[in-house]
Amino acid sequence: MDEIKLNVELLRKRVPNLTVAAAAAGLRPATVSNLCTGKIPLARAEVRTLVALADLAECSVDELIIRGNTVEMLETGIKAIDFFAPLTLGSTIGFVARPGMGQLVLLAEIFHRMNERSYQTFFLKPMEDAIGLSDVTNAAEFICFSPNEVLENMLTVSKKPILLAADRQTVLSGEIDTLLEELKEKGIVPTTILVDLRGEAVDEQEPYGPLDTLLQFDADLVSRKIYPSINPLYSTSVLAEGGHLSKVHLQALQEAKKILRRYRELRFLGRDRVPESDKSTYHRGLRLEAYFSQPFFIAEPITKIQGAAVALQTTIKDVQRIMKGELDDVEIESLSYRGEIGG
């Protein structure tokens, strides 16, 4: 039987404010969001839910369903992303962060890495300024000041994969949806990253509408200078939630989240008050947290640490070693801000 999924792109086009519209139609916004990300398999959706969504989109239920699996991972070499919330080609990714949490540095690093892999990188530059914006403009190949300029430039470049980034304000104005639809009509399907310079997305339940990947930034990691400050428990991906990962990856991911969830609870108790039965979980959580910090190539002039890219399969093996206790005697500092463990 063919795999089925929701036609999220059609919903975005027909129902721009999907969360509000779904609630008005008597649907739970969380359910609609989980169906869009794949957290709830479409096969488990109630018929009345699909009918209601089709009514909102003014289409048939058949038009609302895509059959077949065309999901393809975009590997970045950034351990926290590839392991916890992997990106997909041609998808829409949203960053949720307060200003100063490193979202623009992460975007610039992704641009840098994709440039090295012959991607065409575009940045639809917002009117307002922000700390770290220059990192992005320095890393992007094409700096555009309007959706029309993005469209015109994309039509002139060679047939290479495209990465496009824009600010959340283009979502609120509807500009990004219009642009993506125009690009699709021209046969261009970029991978799109949406950032939030104002830091308002943190306070919204559905800050960008339906997404394929959401990267939630973590204030606690920022306060302890652990970067990239991606929250491993609240960042989500259609690949991770929709059953598209390998069995080995999925098992490692689930176990790592379990350890990190308990580790975060134990941190509030304080190191000296951790129960004896939880000490191994606490110390392995510490090591996992340190391992997912990573030096960036664009930060080398400042940190004086060589940037590192780690293949997903290597990350999975390293995480498994930590969880099995093979590195219980290794100092935390020796796991921080490095690439693969090695040895």
Ordered list of secondary-structure elements with their pairings:
Blueprint (H helix, E strand, L loop, with lengths): L3 E3 L1 H7 L3 H7 L4 H9 L9 H11 L7 E3 L5 E2 L4 H6 L2 E2 L3 E5 L6 H14 L3 E5 L8 H7 L2 E3 L2 H10 L5 E6 L1 H5 L1 H11 L5 E5 L17 E4 L2 H5 L12 E2 H4 L5 H23 L9 H13 L8 H4 L8 H13 L19
Parallel strand pairs: 5-9, 5-10, 6-7, 6-8, 8-9
Antiparallel strand pairs: 1-2, 3-4, 10-11
Helix pairs in contact: 2-3, 6-7, 8-10, 13-14, 13-16
Give an overview in words.
This protein has 343 residues and is α/β, with parallel strands linked by helices. The chain has three domains: 4-67, 434 Repressor (Amino-terminal Domain); 92-211, Rossmann fold (3-Layer(aba) Sandwich), CATH 3.40.50; 247-334, Orthogonal Bundle (Bovine Mitochondrial F1-ATPase, ATP Synthase Beta Chain, Chain D, domain3), CATH 1.10.1140.10. Helix content is 43%, strand content 12%. The protein contains 16 helices and eleven strands. Helix 2 packs across helix 3, helix 6 packs parallel to helix 7 and helix 13 crosses helix 16 (312-324). The chain is globular, with a radius of gyration of 20 Å. It starts with a strand and ends in a 19-residue tail after the last helix.
